[in-house]
Amino acid sequence: MKRRQWILIGAGSVLLAAVFVWAFRPQPVPVEVANVKRAPFEQTVDEDGKTRVIDRYVVSAPLAGKLARVRLEPGDAVTAGMEVARLTPAAPAMLDARTARELTERVGAATAALEQARANVARSEAASAQAQSDLERQKKLKSDGFIAASAVEQAELAARVQAQALAAARFAVNGAQHDLAQARAALMRAREGARDRPGTAWPIESPVAGRVLRVLQKSEAVVGVGTPLLEIADPGRLEIVADVLSTEATRITPGARVHIDAGSGLALDGRVRHVEPAAFTKVSALGVEEQRVNVVIDLVSPPDRWQRLGDGYRVDVRIVVAARAEAVVAPVAALFRDNDEWAVFALDGGLAVRRGVKLGGRNSSDAWIEQGLAPGVRVIVYPSDSVADGKRVKVVRGG
Questions:
Q1: Domain end (from 290, 323, 356)
Q2: Given Cys at both, which of 30, 181, 223, 391 links 396, Cβ 3.0 to 4.6 Å?
Q3: Is residue 58 packed enough to be buried (19+ CB in 10 Å), middle (13-18) or exposed (0-12)?
């Protein structure tokens, strides 16, 4: 065989081997990447919440008797002293010593409740005045450059909370006065006994101004003493209650900022007013018993933005427990556990390189990286089992 033929055969063999090597070489793993960046970071506790009116009053029947059909509907406006229902008392029984004592004690309890409500008003007035004085003092110190703006914000929040507490205390006084009047009327009715004309209608009045939230007894019926008839409140005074795990509640402090998603693109701002001191047991959707704590949140966005909300509406809340104005932030989807530490796969010249990182905190979407990454590094998100340290990868999505 001629030399030229040997050369051609050799070249063909080399070419064929190269084709086989190229065809069966390890293929790079397709991956999605994202950039590490420097940005503000907030660590939050995310939970469901619901709205509720701050002050509500349940109007109940002061006497046993026949209730006329209630004409009011939910949403109707009422004023203090307005008749909301009409009751025809049942024929009074003989007033024995026991009944007289019970009605007298009811008047005494209502009187004590009124005095307690008045004492709460006095205490709330003093606390509100002190909070306002502190606010003025903090404003002056800030204008002189001695304190930061955050201290003034905390003082403003404290003044606002005390003002709301004062309004609630005054509302309680109105309700207690109404209860006392009803108790005295019931005692007087029992003492008068048969001297009253049979069938005399008894008007039931609203103790406060507001709107009807619910009509609990709409139809005409015979009702007993204390039967709830209507719920009345001011729907323009709303708060939000969210129950969180007790382990998370220890990180939440009064005054913490809250991001509220009310649905339909309605984003609102709030502040934690207080964390209730007692927990309760709640069974999760998975059947696990959990210890939960109620967190009460004030809406701080302008009222005209949340007028569409009503009592008992569901909202999503994100309570800020830690925040940094500037931090190294990476997607949570890039993190994975490697032995006892957190790690990510960084992209380096087409190779996946494992890097251990130290976290300062994380939320549902981002992680604050204290050590291990710098802004501008590209990391692999949602890494599959095919990705390993030193593995060739191919970017199919991301920066």
A1: 323
A2: 30
A3: middle
